[in-house]
Amino acid sequence: MRPTASRITGLETTVFAEMSALAARTGALNLGQGFPDEDGPDVVVEAARQALRAGHNQYAPGPGLPVLREAVAAHQGRHHGLELDPTSQVVVTTGATEGIAAALLALVNPGDEVIVLEPYYDSYVAMIQMAGGVRRPVTLRAPDFRLDAEALRAAVTPRTTMILLNTPHNPTGTVLSRAELQVVADVATTHDLTVVTDEVYEHLVLDPDAEHVPLATLPGMFERTLTLSSVGKSWSLTGWKVGWATGPTDLVAALTTAKQWLTYTSGGPLQPAVAVALTEAYDFPAALRTSLRERRDHLVGGLRDLGVPTHLPQGTYFALSDVSDLGWSDAAAFCDALPERAGVVAIPASAFHDDVEAGRHLVRWAFCKRREVLDEALDKLARADLHA
Ligand SMILES: *Cc1c(COP(=O)(O)O)cnc(C)c1O
């Protein structure tokens, strides 16, 4: 084997690719990877088709098409009351994934510590490592998965430079409350930290009592916060990989500098269509929310009826179960056995923890699938022996 760089040591294949391959190999129903099995709005798909036919097939400008940057600025204004200059405070990225990569490469020096909520989205781990940073996880713990203010304060060291936040949070479904965000803001202000906040599920808050509050809207936070989002989750277009970063001019400029050497630009014909999503199809996420709430209740209720204790998430499209009551000491073993036992694939959340004990019993299910698929999965689970 030829030598490889330490930058990628331990980052081999993501658990999603592994579990999706397992689903394909065994013909099992895939409740693992979080992509919907129904596409986003026709008017948006049609806009992309027209853009392809109208010859929008060459490079879009590096920071993104003006029409899309304006639509993103208008979206941040309409939904969150943030007033942005579309030319200097908005940049289009190749999904939120590139936003995460470019933000970390632009803002983290080797040896800098980055505080991150765990269970974490796995690209955070990879990109903190590739940037040469050191991750300092703060654990959202079962059964409630709320932010532990003391743990957050205790995670700060003289080397901390950044908090990488995610709300609504994958995979716990926690939507950080205004009070929890105020704790984050206080820590960031006290220690002069930059915050990168991943808000790709901003429109997928399913609990009427919960509310998505962008961290950048808290007093004094805009100046130190980069906000990331994308069209994928909220408009059921995960394959398009069109996202955006917004924030103060200096942070957006830094992110753009790194981004231009990653992809420079992407999705030329998709960018005008995403502008249509944010304007003409702005109400699509509200309808998706209603239907996702039903599907969440159906899956969580079904799992609980089967004796699988399952947390009701406030948002996103994931629910976490604790399989220790079924006699499993390890969620990974449960997930390995599940395709053969039941013909269903789920993801062990232990993969998203440094604190292995905190995640050992947790299994993640995606409920962004058609009702029939969830029914079939629950039927299969009901017929299987789920005990260790
Ligand atoms: C899906 C997801 C992303 C990736 O977003 P893309 O726009 O598809 O790149 C980023 N963060 C979280 C928490 C996600 O669940």
UniProtKB/TrEMBL annotation:
> CDD domains under this entry?
AAT_like
User: What keyword terms does UniProt attach to this protein?
Assistant: Aminotransferase, Pyridoxal phosphate, Transferase
Q: Which residues form the Aminotransferase class I/classII large domain?
A: 29-380
Q: Transmembrane segments in this chain: where?
A: none
- InterPro entries the record matches: Aminotransferase_I/II_large (IPR004839), Kynurenine-oxoglutarate_AT (IPR051326), PyrdxlP-dep_Trfase (IPR015424), PyrdxlP-dep_Trfase_major (IPR015421), PyrdxlP-dep_Trfase_small (IPR015422)
Q: Which Pfam families match?
A: Aminotran_1_2
What are the names of the required cofactors?
pyridoxal 5'-phosphate
Entry GO MF terms: transaminase activity
* Stored NCBIfam families: PRK07777.1
> By what name is this protein known?
Pyridoxal phosphate-dependent aminotransferase
